[in-house]
Amino acid sequence: MKKISNVYTTKNYDSFSFLGNNRMVSKSHVGKIIDSMKKNRLMSPILVNENRQIIDGQHRFLAQKELKLSVPFIVKKGYGEKETQILNTNTKNWSLVDWESYYCNKNIKDYHIFREFRKKYKFDFESTQHLLTKKESCGHNLNIFREGLLAVSSLKYAVDSAEKIISVGEYFKDYKDRYFLRAMMHCFNVSEYNHKRMLRKLSYQGNSLVKCVDKKSYLRLIEDIYNFKNRKETKPLRLF
Length: 240
Prior knowledge:
By secondary structure, this protein is an alpha/beta fold. The chain is built from 11 helices and 5 strands; from the N terminus they run E-E-H-E-E-H-E-H-H-H-H-H-H-H-H-H. The chain has a 5-stranded mixed sheet with strand order 1-5-3-4-2. The protein is elongated and about 80 Å long.
């Protein structure tokens, strides 16, 4: 058996500090830890560097500070932002909002664009990424987001597409459904598709646009609505 690290303890809370690019503190998470510690406090040291900057365990630290408990900690010299990111990537305890804030704090332009766009149009993270990268589907998109590799393809395209999708909201309450969004992005890439015409067709077809289970089902339904009562001289829309 080999001893690796010493565990220290202190009530000098002011001796600790947070790294600027650590994740945002969640008050609700701190509250849950406080409730848990009141019932049964387990030994779980926080991890700090030689300057007592918290690398891992900021929520546990705040909970113990709130309860006026001594804080157990382990010192790892040389640890910093990189180690914080690795620890949270491996444990998967960062939310997408945490990653968004982390990269915005590092002043990565694409993440600032992402955050502003997401907050303005209120699409979920995956849909926001689809729009900004011009990719209808990509299973590893969120991993790319977490790894700091987000690359905005065209903000103009994203804004134009978002506005068009939102305009359907008058006729379809689930217009932010991720499969509907992907279907609409597919339509925007079809030269024959005309969004104003689609809105006209929806205006007199009542509740014809309904929620579907996948992108393909939405495309079939959009075809039917778009081609409804087509004039003979008008070429029908084909999305497959």
